[in-house]
């Protein structure tokens, strides 16, 4: 567990505090084992008098403002300080930490003032402008701002992406911008720092240049010294297997098994298997769900994913092969499904595919239904011919007000 590495490092170096900029959990609904592991590790920090300040990300925030989350539970139990903004009459308010209610937007630890904004989604730009008036009153404090947002990333996907120019005014009042959301490391002009997720949340993240880890930051007289420590995440093994020479489905299972056996994955590894090639049998006749479970048991894997690219076209808009990108494959499949419904002009089809991909990513990211509705309204003209079927809010809501 990569978080154990962080805790061990914090204890060994006797750090003053730890900050976690969201998505501590990858899902809102976690199992008992995951919660127990989190409590055991956070308890070690608590016993060592190392406070932990945290914000909610899009994956672990509560579904509704009036309902709890597992981070809220950890906060109430005193394992973390969960920093969140408040709202009054639709306006953002940043309030100091109240130990009695165990709630607040900012906290002073060892002479450092830490603000937490969390994940603000498509409202990020406007909320940052509202937060400026609170951050401007910094006094002599060294200011850390924790924000779960993607800077110069995800701009076309309605998922909390903002431009650096929109964030830059905060450099006047924020000394250290602690970012979360993007799963790979990136930095912003010696000011903003996104360490990446500790683990490979998706197997596609296991690529050259996609660093994952955490920072050790030392501040003295207003100056910071940054050290990046790569995380030790679970092993990952990937296999691209050509099944063109298999005559029957039974042959496919044997070929897959033999290829993995030839280069066995480490115990506890996450495994991705991509199948490709032209076969005479129906690729859908392969019971890959059952075979996935067999591979997990046989090779003691934590997770196995099999991508079935058999009999996909070699010509046209998508050149299929062992190294086809998931995004390209998704766009191809979405396009084929849309073409089954009606004919499209090429430019119009690409626009609609863009919207479908955005909707898919919003759902995977765990956004609430309002985020999806806002996106559909904003890009509605791409989903239908405006002169025939103008999209409005009623088009995406049922009569009872629920989202479709």
Please report the first level of CATH classification, the CATH class of the largest domain: Alpha Beta
Work out the helix count.
Answer: 10
Through-space gap between termini: 39 Å
What fraction of the residues are assigned to beta strands by DSSP? 15-25%
User: What average pLDDT do the residues reach?
Assistant: 83
Largest sheet: 6 strands, mixed
Shape: globular
Spatial strand order of the main sheet: 6-7-8-11-13-12
Q: Given the helix and strand composition, which structural class is it? A: alpha/beta
Please provide the ordered H/E string of secondary-structure elements. HEHEHEEEEEHEEEHEEEEEEHEHEHHH
> Could you say what the CATH topology of the largest domain is called?
Purple Acid Phosphatase, chain A, domain 2
CATH superfamily of the largest domain: Metallo-dependent phosphatases
Please state the second-level CATH architecture of the largest domain: 4-Layer Sandwich
Which regions have little confidence, pLDDT < 50, spanning 5+ residues?
386-404
What number of structural domains do the residues give? Answer: 3
Question: What integer value in Å does the Rg equal?
Answer: 24 Å
Description:
- With 404 residues, the chain is of the alpha/beta class.
- It has three domains: 2-230, Metallo-dependent phosphatases (Purple Acid Phosphatase, chain A, domain 2); 235-324; 336-404.
- It has helices at residues 2-13, 32-47, 70-76, 124-135, 164-167, 249-262, 288-299, 326-341, 346-364, 369-378, and strands spanning 18-21, 52-55, 81-82, 86-88, 91-93, 106-109, 112-118, 142-148, 150-151, 161-162, 176-180, 186-188, 192-194, 213-220, 223-230, 236-242, 270-277, 303-310.
- The strands form six sheets. A six-stranded mixed beta sheet has the order 6-7-8-11-13-12, with no helix packed on it.
- Helix 8 (326-341) crosses helix 9 (346-364) and helix 9 packs antiparallel against helix 10.
